[in-house]
Amino acid sequence: MQRNIKRLAFPVLTAVLAAMIAGLFWPDAPVLAKTKTKTKAKTQTAAAVGRPVTIRAVQVSGSSVTAALAASPVPASDDGKLYFFADEVYEDGPVGELVASTALSGSMNVTFPLNLNTPSSNLARKFLAAVKSGGRFVQVSDEHYITNPEAVATFAAPRRDNGIKGILPDPAQIESGELEDLGIKQISYNIYLGDIVGASTDPGLPTTWFSYDGVNYPFNTDKLRGYDDYLSRYTQLGFQITLNILNNKTAAGADLIHPLARDSHVCPGYAFNTAEPYGTKHLKAIAAFLGMRYNGSSGYGQVDNWIIGNEVNARTEWYYMSTDNLDTNVNAYNKAFRIFYNEIRSVNGSAMIYNSIDQEWGRKSNPGCFLSKEYLDRFNYYMLREGNIDWGLSFHPYDSPLYDPYAWNGYTVWVHTDLATPYITMQNLFVLTDYMQRPEFLNPYGQVRSISLSEIGFTSYDGEELQAASIAYGYLQALANPYVDSFIYYRQTDSAHEIESRIAQGLETESGAHKMAYEFYKNIDGPDAAAYKAEASRIMGVNIDSLIGSRTPMTRAGRGW
């Protein structure tokens, strides 16, 4: 990921650039024509605690949706009926479209049209139950989403789950043969929504139009072509692709930015707009468009894995909202996640959708951010309450601090072996994977969720030998953990900006010269692995095999900050 160094030397942008971004024109978005029939009864929302009706499931079957409900006790009502509403994600209470009703009882089912590809599509709406009481609709259940969007998928591309070894590639070296030489199986790439939306900037490339639920949306063909070229080429080379969706500020994508992220704060990623009608509809269209374009059958490439946002617990740095209220932030993110999950999987049923958190499990190095554990817990709370789906976890187990060159021997103060650990690194990764085995974190099939180490790197600033040993240790730790599906190394080539902060994580220098880590990453799982393990053990001063999988990791005194 081409990212700024967080918590070390976040770049100070020029006043001119900051002013330009802060001064983006936020036009009043056009109001989409409402086609749904609203009830004329007055509405109110019941308290969140103690709602008597449970929505057990909302499932797609053919062109219909069926919801299963249970009531304990059966709520009192004016007319003995239960009413089922479909709300947009920004709506609260029984204010959306009334899609079904049935007689109140202890066990109920309602069925209504999916209306896929129409202005009244229910694919990415949320549902709730209400009764009439005193002439008003009163909410009597929590919200619930459709949890099997893959049931209507047009495509189900065979996944390329051929190994965990991955890298953030240098696009300039796509034809160098180095990725094949390294034995890479996975690559990650970033896509910025603000860049790809809107009319084409190149007069020679007509705007790409995409029809979504009766509305046509423009996409910048010039910007798309760059992604198309790289992703199709990486697909041809046989790699599994993970695409990280970032929300940057541009004039064309202004409506995609959450209202609570429209101040002068400058960072690479902003919260998705799930608070307004037009921005939400636009977000749905983009999710459907990307799922369709990179489904493996369109000629533009195949994306197996989608990460929604980057390190979303790092509020001020990667998923900005102006409020520091945890529930507000997680709630808004979960709504966006549901949109991307349902839209992408309704096109490509084999795609995996991931959230993204960093290694700051129990300690905030930046007080404006959230702990990754508390964010994960709250995220999972909403997922269970609103319909369990097969979401995946993207985690970044960097050393603490980022420039610490000893991946196998972290600071005692930061690396613990219990849930109270300040950081989760490659040394105590088992803390995370143990936690994800808890019953409340299992996917709908009772399995441990897919865990992707989608960004991990080690610096050579203090010597190439230390980086080489660190990458051997880190990769072998991931390989030995049965719950890790990806080890995506950050990065192929050094970044000059990052080196200023003692971060030189590339496998090669800016000039393209291979570092020692290149050969180690290439060979640590190959025929000559024993020799490279022996050399890594010499550098580390301890047998590397004895540390792999160890629940008593080496640590050293100090703080490192």
Q: How large is the radius of gyration?
A: 24 Å
Any idea what the shape is? globular
Estimated helix fraction: 10-25%
Spans of 5+ residues with little confidence (pLDDT < 50)? Answer: 1-48
The percent range for strand residues is 15-25%
Mean pLDDT, rounded to whole units?
91
Helix/strand structural class: alpha/beta
Major beta sheet, specifics?
8 strands, parallel, barrel
Q: How many helix segments?
A: 13
**Ends apart, CA distance between termini:** 24 Å
Tell how many strands the DSSP assignment holds. 21
> For the largest beta sheet, what order do the strands appear in spatially?
10-11-14-15-16-17-19-20
Provide a descriptive summary of the structure in words.
The protein has helices at 15-22, 178-182, 193-196, 221-236, 277-293, 326-345, 372-385, 429-435, 464-480, 496-499, 516-523, 529-540, 544-547, and strands at residues 42-44, 53-61, 64-71, 81-87, 97-103, 107-113, 126-133, 136-139, 144-145, 165-167, 186-192, 208-212, 215-219, 240-246, 305-308, 352-358, 392-396, 409-411, 451-456, 484-489, 554-556. With 561 residues, it is α/β, with parallel strands linked by helices. The protein is globular and about 80 Å long.
Summarize this entry quickly:
With about 550 residues, the protein is of the alpha/beta class. It has helices at about 15-20, 180, 195, 220-235, 275-295, 325-345, 370-385, 430-435, 465-480, 495-500, 515-525, 530-540, 545, and strands at about 40-45, 55-60, 65-70, 80-85, 95-105, 105-115, 125-135, 135-140, 145, 165, 185-190, 210, 215-220, 240-245, 305-310, 350-360, 390-395, 410, 450-455, 485-490, 555.
